[in-house]
Design brief:
Elements lengths: L1 E5 L5 H10 L3 E5 L10 E3 L3 H7 L2 E4 L4 H9 L13 E4 L5 H13 L3 E4 L2 E2 L2 H5 L3 E6 L2 H6 L1 H7 E8 L3 H30 L5 H8 L4 H5 L1 H5 L9 H15 L2 H15 L10 H10 L1
Parallel strand pairs: 1-2, 1-4, 2-3, 4-5, 5-6, 8-9
Antiparallel strand pairs: 7-8
Helix pairs in contact: 8-12, 8-13, 8-14, 12-13, 13-14
Length: 280
Amino acid sequence: MDVGFIGLGAMGRPMARNLAAAGHVVLAWNRSPIEAPEGVTLVESPRAVAEGTGVAFVMVSDADAVEDVMFGESGWTLGAAPGSVVIQSSTIGPEAAERIGERAAAAGFEFLDAPVSGSVKPAEDAQLTILGGGEQSLFDRYESLFEAIAKRTVVFGPVGSGSVAKLGVNGFLVSVIAAASESLSWVHKRDPGLDIAIFASVIERISPLAAGRAESISGQAPAGGFSLRQAAKDMELVGDEFGSQVVEAVRGLTRSGLDLGFGDLDVSCLGAVVRSRDDG
């Protein structure tokens, strides 16, 4: 199948490469100049992506960027044939997904709300989960594309439902890491000799997510993975939607991490954020 891909960042790049590896012809565009992923052909604009394909993924930074690459100058809609399909996989709010979907439909195009759950490593290994909103028949039509990038596709309901699920997942994920950061920082402060690896084995039944990151929460978080910059961006969306005291506290913690210059580190750097706060 000929497929377009708009946005070749940390997540988009391996997704496009996996589509090509599965035998699809992939035409892609990225805002900044980059080297093409293996098997992928770069073109000069989102419009050119649309002119060469009938379906395209969009994986960009935020809702404004989605609207720009779809409807802006040299945007996807300017080159797309009637009935062409956008698979919108960026993390945006549900209202934005609904608005963009309605705008696409009014212009004669199909729209799938399909953000992904998983960070860079699952993207590289084609082990993402697609969180879907839109017509089941469209998800079925493009099953071969989703199978090339993900281990599972779950359709929750109409357009907007996928983005609701995505914010719910990421709000839960970052909040768990924040809670683990508080707990592990206290444990280490109270008993510096405690073996964190053994402690991680104890909490694994409660939270495999926290256990898997326990040592980097307690020590030095690596660069990459699910970066704090991405987590903080998502928590701004989550905070606007949830409006709870817990989420506001977690959002504040991610903002503090950005202020400390931790944006490119894995979200497990929230442990270092908690320690810096306690030391201060």
